[in-house]
Amino acid sequence: MRRRLILPTIPLALAGLLLTGCAVTGLTTTGSDTSSSSGDATSTAAQVTVDSDLDATAVLAADDEATVVADDDWTADDAVEITLSGSTAEASGDGVEVSGSTVTIGAAGVYRLSGDLDGAVVVAAPDDAQVVLILDGVDIANTAGAAISVTTADDVVISLADGSQNTMSDASSYDDAAAANAAIYADADLTLTGSGSLDVTGNGNDGIASTDDLAITSGTITVDAADDALRGKDALVISGGTLDLTAGGDALKSDDDEDATRGYVWISDGTVSATSGDDGISAATDAVVTGGTVTLRAQGPADAGSKGISAGVVVAIGGGTVDVTATDDGLHSDGSIGITGGTVTVAAGEDGAHAANTLDVAAGSLTIAESTEGLEATDILIRGGETVVTSSDDGLNGSGDAGSGSTAGGGGGGMSDTGETITISGGTLTVDAGGDGIDSNGSVTVTGGDIVVWGPTMQGNGALDSNGGFSVSGGTLLAVGSAGMAETPDADAAQAWIAATISGSAGDEIEITDADGTVIASATAAKQFETVVFSSSEVAAAGTYTVTVAGESVEVTAGEAIAGGMGGGGMGGPGEMGQPGDRSGAPSDGGENS
After folding, report:
1. Where exactly are the structural domains of the chain?
2. What is the tens place of the pLDDT at every residue in 513-565?
3. Could you tell me where the beta strands, DSSP code E, fall in 378-433?
4. Cα 322 to Cα 339: distance, rounded to the nearest angstrom
5. Can you tell me the distance from the alpha carbon of 376 to that of 431, in angstroms, rounded to the nearest whole number?
6. Which of 512, 551, 489, 584 is nearest to 39 (CA)?
7. CB 280 within 8 A of CB 304
8. Which of 14, 47, 215, 383 could be joined to 191 by an S-S link, Cβ 3.0–4.6 Å?
């Protein structure tokens, strides 16, 4: 597993309140001082344990460097010409043997292929040989196996000649014992390059596969495969080109699960569009995107577990544009997820982004446009960037294997703290949740950032829900939702907060004013609501404030729960924050996460 470290303590005097008119979260506040308005503003936040290498650059540095043959490593000046002619071929130089419809290349060198072949091209060169195949208007169809197969060589390059159109297709099925089981198959490192086009049909299994590294640097490549479209066992790296992939299985795959430094997929540039019956990207270790435009449609049936991006260790996105639609999770890691840049948009049938360990958003833009649960991990960190989450259940769910079990009865504050964490220290976060907005089986800590939560309209969930306490010491927080399971920050939170029971509908203006009548925050409601919780540096301990919605107003005192509420750390079960005796809506689930 990856190394772990303790982040340095974070000063609470952080700059970063929303400016007036900010459209990211829909919340307008006044002032710019995010220091605590109650308690010691110079104190430091609790230390948080996170993976040390969730940045894309660090993830790649820990992986074995893939073999990529550059264009200037060879020249076409002395290429051997191979002319394909139906069921046979002719060669202009040495190193080529033709036997019926099989063309075998047995020596290092550069070979230019043209014409049509109903057969196969086989590379069986010395183990230290570099072989370059220039495809210049080639159509190879092999009904008995792979169109191109590499049995022995060190490095093989397939170069698509400028302006050329090339096609490959293979057998409709393979025996389980077959070594070569793709339309283009290499038991060697394989690099695809050039400015021409290549259309590959993998009838029997994969489209393009390598048992070592598979690299694509340029070209226009279309693959339609019965199983995986592109598979590089040790690594699959894409640094350019235009790829259009259709796969019955995974679209892009690296599956070496025996070496922790291999089994990764890395996209640094190019345009990738993929439709798959299983995962869009499947990596035994790391799935990394640092550039390019990546569009993934993982469209397997609901019970197939089709994920947009799936990794065994880390999903790291540091740049580029990533657009994911998946019937299962959009982003999924058996380890951790780190987003340090780029623009990511996800529509998922299950979790928008799910990590078994840490989910860290440090920069960039992450939009979960559709999900059951938006962000789910044992430890969730929002440290920067712009995050927008829409979910039918919980928006942020701190849930994992840190512990289990609960005490009976009560709301979220009555459940046991099982050690999960949600920590928000910067950036902007907007949540629109059908279930709990921000929900942790453990604790929630807010030290900075600009947060707006449009919580549930049903009574069995709340805009805020924590089992181990909700600490606020900086930033701005507006949480709007139903009354049945509403919760506030802790009573002794370093930054003061207010809470009000007041009803409104979508489109209503929520306005919060201080005792002098100065507006300190306003927002336009995204949905129906019954409660408003607000915290910022503009709220003074024990100060009085007025919350106004659609012409109706209620006066509140900072730090006080209402209508029988429990005060900080949770307003209790149904009826405690709403009107006295109000127990409408679905029965409470006790705040338990799932």
Report:
1. 69-233
2. 999 999 999 999 999 999 999 999 999 999 999 999 999 999 999 999 765 34
3. 379-382, 386-391, 396-398, 421-433
4. 11
5. 13
6. 489
7. no
8. 215
